[in-house]
């Protein structure tokens, strides 16, 4: 693979800039904190329709193509000046029922790691997770912070129906399904916390850069 | 009131789509051809960003329970009202009880139906009436229109004459801009992509136009960190069959990007149907900008012409 200079700044269209600082092996979360801070700076400038962080990169959608050159040349200095603690976020607590009918895969996950169901619930709920970015479907958060002892392969055949609110583990990631959908992750519990409600004034309860924790409401056997 | 009697392959309420919430995973939606939407709205005196009904393939029927001023534009679906042919690209009056029938499109894929007046739809979601079919919100009930769906429209008669307008010409020659992954894709992937012609796969939909080629193989084994994607992004999954993302696309993806369709040419995908051939050419940002200006000029000319016509009528 050819090496590419970082940050890489590419005009994807006359209205869109892709800013990429991903490098394999780097601390994803530390880099992402600066990405959130840069996203906030761009959002506050009023020059953009959309500012979309993803995995150690940021895509900027300009209101006017005449602003393209200005931002293409100024992003780099903003990146070097910005501090990861320039960013403010919200912490959310998600009351979660682990196991039973709500977490049909929790015993398989426990068995896979030679743990008890209580261990899985305890380890999963004792971490603080960072919302790296959202995507895949409205309100679906990619979370960083899963205990490596809980990394569990996805189902070989995805379930046709995963219910809204399902708390699940897929590979090195954990997350909550914001809507009923198909899905291949191991379902270990359920939360009533509404990640996405299109009729609410703020449809999406969480934003990129927020932190969250799962709080044990009950562990069912 | 209007009632959907037959929705055909797919029919949905769309405007220019939803922006400002991509970072929450909320996609754009909206008409695949926003220029056809604007022009059709103008023919019936609606504002540019007023919702229209996007009709895919045809084989559809709609009943009108009031007198309306309507227009159809996009492709010829051999439309008729009570057995009398109606011309695409012209506005006309439709009377209470009339049924608009559409046959199957032969040389295109989508039509836009504008109905003059105030549409009584559920509250706009994030400033748009567009139906997000995958996520299930917007439009009438958050899904594609189905037989029996009905909603009220308070008619507005903007003008007393039928008006016609041309759409900018269609094309199967698609101009694209270089993407961020040209240097990490296997040798000559981008050159091969533009040297060969492609055809539209039957599994294409509003999320994306899937491309197939008998002679061009672009398979790879790259896995990349997720990045934002948008209508026009050309993703290359490992199987080597590119996908041109369209209006119902998700907001992030992890496949390499071959390039991005210029904004002015994205509308062509509204009329490309399964089996149609197309080919791609890399252009510069300047060329993309000029192409866009040409479309804006087309709309400006139309605005002046309509103003003059309406002043005379």
UniProtKB/TrEMBL annotation, chain A:
* Mitochondrion recorded as keyword: no
Entry keyword Hydrolase: yes
Q: Name one Pfam family in it.
A: CT_C_D
Limits of the Carboxyltransferase domain: 7-206
Q: Which GO terms describe its molecular function?
A: protein kinase inhibitor activity
* Swiss-Prot/TrEMBL keywords: ATP-binding, Hydrolase, Nucleotide-binding, Protein kinase inhibitor
The record's NCBIfam families line, in alphabetical order, gives: 5-oxoprolinase subunit PxpB (TIGR00370)
Protein name (Swiss-Prot/TrEMBL): Sensor histidine kinase inhibitor, KipI family
UniProtKB/TrEMBL annotation, chain B:
Lineage: superkingdom: Bacteria
Question: What GO molecular function terms would the record report?
Answer: hydrolase activity
Looking at the keywords, is ATP-binding present? Answer: yes
Q: Which SMART domains match?
A: AHS2
Positions the record marks as coiled coil are: none
Q: Keywords on this record? A: ATP-binding, Hydrolase, Nucleotide-binding
Question: InterPro entries from the xrefs?
Answer: CT_A_B, Cyclophilin-like_dom_sf, PxpC
Q: Pfam families from the xrefs? A: CT_A_B (PF02626)
Q: Where is the Carboxyltransferase domain?
A: 23-299
Recorded protein name is Allophanate hydrolase
Provide the species name.
Pseudoalteromonas lipolytica
């Amino acid at each position: 693979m050819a090496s590419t200079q970082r940050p890489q700044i590419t005009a994807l269209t006359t209205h869109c800039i892709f800013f990429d600082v991903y490098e394999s092996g780097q601390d994803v979360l530390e880099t992402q904190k600066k990405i959130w801070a840069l996203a906030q700076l761009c959002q506050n400038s009023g020059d953009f329709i959309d500012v979309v962080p993803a995995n150690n990169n940021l895509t900027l959608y300009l209101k006017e193509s005449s602003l393209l050159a200005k931002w293409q040349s100024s992003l780099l200095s903003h990146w070097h000046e910005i501090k990861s603690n320039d960013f403010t976020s919200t912490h959310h607590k998600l009351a979660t029922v682990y196991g039973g009918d709500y977490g049909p895969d929790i015993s398989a996950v426990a068995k896979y790691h030679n743990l008890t169901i209580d261990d899985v619930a305890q380890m999963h709920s004792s971490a603080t997770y960072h919302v790296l970015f959202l995507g895949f479907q409205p309100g679906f958060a990619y979370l960083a912070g899963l205990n490596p002892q809980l990394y569990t392969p996805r189902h070989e055949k995805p379930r046709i129906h995963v219910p809204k609110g399902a708390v699940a583990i897929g590979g090195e990631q954990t997350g909550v399904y914001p809507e009923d959908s198909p899905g291949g992750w191991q379902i270990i519990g359920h939360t009533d916390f509404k990640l996405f409600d299109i009729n609410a004034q703020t449809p999406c309860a969480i934003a990129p850069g927020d932190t969250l924790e799962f709080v044990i409401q009950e562990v069912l056997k | 009131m209007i009632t959907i009697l037959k929705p055909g392959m797919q029919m949905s309420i769309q405007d220019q789509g939803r922006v400002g919430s991509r970072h929450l995973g909320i996609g754009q939606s909206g008409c695949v051809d926003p220029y056809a939407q604007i022009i059709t709205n103008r023919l019936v005196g609606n504002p540019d960003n007023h919702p229209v009904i996007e009709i895919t393939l045809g084989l559809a029927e709609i009943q009108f329970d009031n007198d309306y001023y309507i227009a159809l534009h996009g492709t010829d679906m051999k439309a008729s009202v009570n057995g009398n042919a109606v011309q695409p690209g012209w506005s006309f009056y439709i009377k209470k009880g009339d049924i608009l029938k559409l046959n199957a499109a032969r040389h295109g894929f989508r039509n836009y139906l504008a109905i003059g007046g105030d549409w009584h739809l559920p509250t706009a979601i994030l400033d748009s009436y567009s139906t997000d079919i995958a996520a299930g919100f917007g439009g009438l009930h958050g899904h594609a229109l189905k037989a029996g769906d009905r909603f009220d429209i308070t008619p507005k008669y903007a003008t007393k004459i039928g008006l016609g307008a041309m759409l900018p010409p269609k094309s199967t020659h698609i101009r694209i801009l270089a993407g961020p992954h040209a240097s990490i894709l296997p040798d000559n992937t981008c050159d091969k992509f533009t040297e060969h012609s492609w055809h539209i796969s039957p599994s294409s939909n509003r999320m994306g136009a899937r491309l197939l080629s008998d002679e061009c193989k672009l398979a790879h084994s790259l896995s990349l960190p997720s990045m934002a994607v948008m209508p026009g992004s050309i993703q290359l999954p490992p199987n080597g069959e590119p996908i041109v993302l369209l209006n119902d696309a998700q907001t992030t993806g992890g496949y390499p990007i071959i390039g991005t369709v210029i904004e002015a040419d994205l509308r062509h995908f509204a009329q490309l149907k399964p089996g149609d051939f197309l080919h791609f050419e890399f252009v510069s940002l300047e060329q993309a900008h000029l192409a866009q200006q040409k479309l804006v000029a087309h709309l400006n000319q139309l605005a002046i012409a309509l103003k003059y016509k309406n002043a005379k009528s």
